[in-house]
Amino acid sequence: MSNNITLKKGLDIPIKGAAELKTSKAIMPGVVALCPSDFKGLNPRLLVREGDRVLAGSPVLADKKCPDILFTSAVSGTVEQVVRGDKRKLLAVLVKADEVQEYLDFGVKEVSDLSAAEIKETLLKSGLWAGMIQRPYGIIADPAVKPKAIFVSAFNTAPLAADLEYALSGEAEAVQAGVKALAKLTDGGVHVSLCEEQYSSSPLHKLEGATLHTFSGKHPAGNVGVQISHISPIKKEETVWTVSLVMLAAIGKLFLTGKYDLRRKVAVTGPMASEPSYIETVPGMPMKEIAGFCAETEGVRVVSGDVLSGAAVGAEGYLRFQDNQITLIKEGTKKELLGWARPFRFNQYSADHTYFNWCLGWLMPNKKYAMDTNLHGGPRAFVMSDAYYGKVLPMDIYPLYLIKACLAGDIEKMEKFGIYEVLPEDLALCEYIDPSKMYIQDIIENGINQMLKEMA
Questions:
Q1: Is 307 left (phi over 0), alpha (psi -120 to 50) or beta?
Q2: Model-level pTM?
């Protein structure tokens, strides 16, 4: 194991609504969606028609650019609807789920007996290849590329994030099988990062065939991008792959059971959650299935993921492919009397101690806030210094200059200032503390899209 890496920069946002470590409900949705928008860079080709019968693991979509990459159904049932938008853009494929689930049999396989090519073929056919993310750019991993290394973050520090130790309890064997499988796809090994405080109690500290690292510090210590920057920073023309711990367990179960099994514990969190706890479900679950967990019926933003980098999918949306957290937060539609000129705001959190409640924060360090989506102002002059963002970004890059390079569309400067090392989620805290109210994650996303277009 490497020495512990302590991150001194970051910020833990004290928001109410952490999930209690209990599973309140198992939800098998009546309809499950497969959404192409869950996969960055996907140009989908539809493989089914309405009325077709599918099993869990049956191919539904393929990538036009790489036809070997398949996207498969999370449940067995009947294709109920193919949803299209403007210019017939494919938005979702809805599958009406069977009461009793049937799985396509990929065969139980001993990972140690398989070659790298056989492992890759199994992952591609099953649809689990879609869980492999390639950096730079955060796109689906290219099967033709051999990565420098594969990285897994075994903990999450995002606001109200699911406790992965609880969410994956009893799946240590599957995680181990997943590590053994992925280790054959790279010469640089599989790097698993654990939380230093929970290292000795975690069953994952006994993983074999992986290089273990420990991290301590505030968010974004759990972001795999931050971990990579401290273990082996990405340079130009280098490629690494990342896999979430949830997807790693699914990969292991594929080889142990022969099934494409995406069932997972999902944390229902946030100030507007009436019963913050866990549910057991599958990705593609309609958000309306958790109506009973919402404290109010209107004025609530439903987020698939965390409040910093999740997607506001709404009550009519679906749980995204990679997510194991749902956040319910109140829409900030009410204006405050006197606004910023009102210093005594005891229920308002300020990362910069703008209000007088900062002194009470020292007396009550565990105080949590029922935050909403109010920005408390609109976009304004972009005059911050790099040191300001550097307080919450523990990476050796120049965030301010990178943001401005993305705004200017200057590819050479984007490369110079760190575009290869980041995804939007890595700068989410910069966006949160930004008094200029800039949509920094969108700016970085646009910069990455420009890089992809220019490098194509």
A1: alpha
A2: 0.95
